[in-house]
Design brief:
206 residues, alpha/beta, Rossmann fold, six-stranded mixed beta sheet, 10 strands
Length: 206
C-alpha cells in the first residue's frame, strides 16, 4: 500500500493543485475499505465518498452537482463545499468543506465515469466480479435493505452498460487474503494492437 501511495504522490496534479484519484468498482467490492487504507498510507488524505453525493432520487444523476460543488472549486485551488446525503433520513445534511490537498481520493460507483476522467490523475478499479460484489453488499446491509438492492442492481447495470469504467482503469486492485495486489489496467495494457473490451469483470483472480 505504501508503494502505491508513494507512486501517487509523484504523479502530476490533475484538478488544480490536487491529484484526484478515482476508486471505482461494483457496489460491495470493497472500495471504501481500500480507499480508507490507501488514505492512511498517504498520511490521512481526504476521501470523498460518492455515497455522500448520490441520493435515492439521484443514484447516478449527480454528475453536474459534483462538478459544480467539488471539481470546479478544487480545479481553481479553492475549498469545495458539499452537503452529504443521509440514506436513513433521506435528506442532505450540513455542508462540509473539502480543502484542496495534494491527494484526494474519490471513492464510489461511478468515480470513473467519462465526465470525471479528465479530472482524475489515476483511476483504480476494484476487480471483483459483480455478482460476488453484490452478494457481499447485500450481506453487509441486511434484509432491511433488500428492496433497495433490487433497484440498485438494475440501476448499476444500466450505468455501467452506458458508461463503463473498468476499460479505462489505470490499475486493477484485487484483494488477496490479507493484502491488495495492483495490476496494470486496460487503459495501460491496451495498445494499438489491442482492443479495449467494455466488460466489467476480472479476467482472473489471485
Amino acid at each position: 500500500m505504501h508503494l502505491l501511495a508513494s507512486r501517487l504522490r509523484r504523479l502530476p496534479p490533475s484538478c488544480g493543485p490536487v491529484r484526484l484519484i478515482g476508486v471505482d468498482g461494483h457496489a460491495g467490492s470493497g472500495k471504501s475499505t481500500f480507499a480508507g487504507q490507501l488514505a492512511d498510507a498517504l498520511g490521512g488524505a481526504p476521501v470523498l465518498h460518492l455515497d455522500d453525493i448520490a441520493s435515492h432520487e439521484e443514484l447516478f444523476e449527480w454528475t453536474g452537482r459534483l462538478l459544480r460543488e467539488v471539481i470546479d472549486p478544487l480545479g481553481r485551488g479553492e475549498t469545495a463545499h458539499y452537503a452529504p446525503y443521509d440514506w436513513h433520513t433521506r435528506r442532505f445534511g450540513a455542508t462540509r468543506a473539502l480543502p484542496p490537498a495534494p491527494v484526494i481520493l474519490l471513492e464510489g460507483v461511478g468515480a470513473g465515469r467519462r465526465a470525471l476522467r479528465p479530472h482524475l490523475t489515476l483511476l483504480l478499479w476494484m476487480d471483483l466480479p459483480r455478482e460476488e460484489s453484490w452478494a457481499r453488499g447485500r450481506s453487509r446491509d441486511g434484509v432491511e435493505q433488500r428492496e433497495f438492492w433490487e433497484g440498485w442492481v438494475v440501476a448499476e447495470q444500466r450505468h455501467f452498460a452506458e458508461d463503463p469504467s473498468r476499460p479505462f482503469a489505470d490499475l486493477l486492485v484485487r484483494q488477496c487474503r490479507e493484502r491488495y495486489e495492483t495490476l496494470d489496467g486496460p487503459a495501460v495494457t491496451a495498445g494499438p494492437d489491442h482492443v479495449i473490451t467494455h466488460g466489467d469483470g476480472p479476467t482472473s483472480m489471485c
